[in-house]
Design a protein that fits this description.
It contains 22 helices and 18 strands. It is of the alpha+beta class. One of its GO terms (molecular function) is glutamine-fructose-6-phosphate transaminase (isomerizing) activity.
């Protein structure tokens, strides 16, 4: 995923406009970057494992008449970077071509790189060689590609550049007589561009032509590998424990006696069941149709959908487009812990539904460094109440959604939060009793937050390593989640009943949604942290978030208790590949971490 930008001019590229475009593109990723520059009669290709502003400072764009570039969020590797050069073409690409391996089998050309973007110039070049124009070749590519494809392809010899997209994440306009492009509408509007068009069908433009071969310069080599090669080991996997425990469980749901603040009545029914109020009882859909009517903008985007690539946000997007009849833009906050399968599903859904996806990417290196410090502190004094600090970095999701609303001019915010995804135990292990009257997954009570922070501070004192550079990031993220006012904000599953079977069937069959290789459930497979914290919860307390989720389904009448018991036995099994990936990207030794968890004090006897 990346932010694409560019200017080509009759005279020189205005440096101020170029700086404005590249600064905004960095919002979408800063792991690596690239530029294509035409000056002094030749094209130069520049690539770096640096943020785009640093690369721009190292690249001479003065007297240039053509500059296009990208600021990239690394998804599936750093071995090859963009711009990709292949068969006389230069390509930039935002998105993931999820079927690129299958597309290679249709070509005579052989694959040379690991990056999925290579399929774009290879495919187009073969079709151009067969007598097609650049535009027709790009159209053919869009017909066969799956996943988000928003691309710029340059033929430097012919002096032609083609723009194309299957989800609308590319815009073209004119400013000061110059052509300007961006992955988003906002930066073009901000600079005062005119005749702005959202690119979907391929469109080509004449640019500088030269028979001189492009020069290539690699500007830096990253010292930290953001996508380490996943090497699995049976000896490592054998360290993972998974014992079936003889714990007392509620006779109605499946919660065990180790659940914080649990108690049982004379019939063995737990207080969580006795105090439960049905959550999955949607209101009349007509109410939502009436609510959104004032937000509709015919022919324009009219809803903003927070989009993680998980099953609930994916199904909510399906409903918003196909049932509610809205034209949404999705927003994704990538903090470095979205798994490859999560990104691929995000890409598939956006492409299939033709929906623009705006990404705000954190500084992945910094975010992972924060997690590393907190995990190191946790391992010195394992405390189940402190596990949630490992996911605190994603709470800035709530901060940036207000920014995106302002940039797009869209007020309506439609969420796809699972109404049964309530995990009282995560704060419960810290000493916070459950609030059985809570109506939302996220509580906004100031007193509850202050009590939580006080208890967490006490737990942090047991391992001072928690007092590190991540603290402000954690606290500010939680502030935006819990205290900021949220206007024009509605939940899809307040009006559509959440039905797991229907959701899974729709996503898997209609959209070719991918499942993880290490679990049967479709829940949490896009979250790189889930396997770790669930292993810790089960090993030390004998249950995971799957037990609380399945218990809610039992209370709603969606599952029998026996079905829930069978499912949690399967879903609580350790997910070795996901665990291994998590520890590798954070730089931890797998055996050392697993042994530390296995030897920690249990909640049960």
């Amino acid at each position: 995923m990346c932010g694409i930008f560019g200017i080509w001019a009759n005279d020189e590229v205005p440096q101020r406009d170029l700086q404005s475009l590249l600064n905004h593109a960095e919002q979408r990723g800063r792991d690596s970057s690239g530029l294509v520059v035409f000056r002094d009669g030749a094209y130069g290709v520049h690539r770096a494992d640096l943020r785009i502003r640093k690369l721009a400072n190292r690249t001479d764009t003065t007297r240039a008449t053509f500059v296009i570039g990208h600021s990239r969020l690394v998804t599936n590797g750093t071995e090859d970077n963009q711009p990709v050069m292949r068969d006389g073409l230069i390509a930039l690409h935002n998105g993931i071509v999820t079927n690129h391996e299958e597309m290679w089998t249709d070509l005579e050309a052989e694959r040379r790189q690991t990056i999925d973007t290579e399929i774009i110039p290879a495919y187009i070049a073969e079709h151009v060689a067969a007598g097609n124009s650049l535009e027709k070749a790009a159209s053919a590519f869009l017909e066969h590609a799956q996943g988000i494809v928003a691309s710029v392809v340059l033929d430097p010899v012919a002096g032609t550049v083609v723009l194309f997209s299957n989800n609308g994440s590319l815009y073209h306009g004119v400013h000061g007589g110059n052509h300007v492009i961006s992955s988003e509408l906002y930066p073009l509007r901000e600079m005062g561009a005119e005749d702005i068009q959202q690119v979907r069908e391929p469109v080509s433009f004449a640019v500088a032509a030269t028979p001189v071969a492009p020069t290539v310069k690699e500007h830096a080599s990253r010292t930290v590998n953001l996508v380490p090669q996943l090497i699995l080991s049976s000896s490592e996997e054998s360290l993972l424990e998974y014992r079936q425990l003889d714990l007392r469980r509620c006779t109605k749901c499946v919660l065990p006696e180790t659940m914080p603040f649990i108690s049982f009545d004379a019939d063995g029914v737990c207080n969580y069941c006795l105090n439960y109020r049905p959550r999955n009882k949607p209101r009349d859909k007509a109410e939502l149709f009436e609510l959104v009517e004032k937000y509709r903008r015919p022919g324009q985007d009219d809803a903003l959908v927070p989009f993680s690539g998980g099953r609930d946000s994916c199904y909510a997007l399906h409903l918003i487009v196909n049932e509610l009849g809205m034209r949404p833009i999705t927003y994704t906050y990538d903090w470095g812990m979205i798994t490859d399968v999560g990104r691929r599903n995000l890409s598939k859904m956006s492409a299939e539904l033709g929906v623009e996806n705006i990404i705000v990417a954190a500084d992945i290196t910094k975010k992972r460094a924060h997690i590393t410090k907190n995990l190191a502190a946790w391992l010195k004094a394992p405390d189940l109440g402190m596990l949630s600090i490992l996911t605190a970095g994603d709470k800035h999701f709530f901060r940036y959604i207000e920014t995106i609303k302002k940039q797009t001019g869209i007020d309506l915010n439609l969420w796809g939060i699972n109404p049964l995804e309530v995990t009282h135990f995560k704060a419960g292990f810290l000493g916070v009793p459950p609030d059985f009257v809570e109506e939302r997954v996220y509580s906004h009570g100031a007193m509850k937050q202050l009590r939580y922070q006080r208890l967490r501070f006490g737990a942090m004192m047991k391992s001072p390593g928690y007092f590190n550079s991540s603290l402000w990031d954690t606290l500010s993220g939680e502030y935006y989640r819990s205290f900021t006012t949220k206007n024009d904000y509605y939940h899809v599953f307040d009006y559509w009943r959440w039905d797991e079977q229907e959701i899974d069937n729709t996503l898997l069959n209609q959209y070719g949604w991918e499942k993880a290789v290490d679990t049967s459930t479709t829940w949490r497979i896009g979250d790189g942290t889930a396997a770790f914290y669930n292993y810790a919860y089960y090993t030390l307390a004998g249950f995971t978030e799957h037990d609380t989720f399945r218990s809610n389904q039992v209370r709603e009448g969606d599952l029998t208790r026996d079905e829930a018991l069978r499912l949690v036995e399967e879903e609580n099994a350790p997910r070795y590949p996901n665990l291994k990936w998590y520890l590798d990207v954070l730089g931890f030794d797998f055996p050392t971490v697993v042994r530390a968890i296995n030897s920690a004090k249990r909640v049960y006897g």
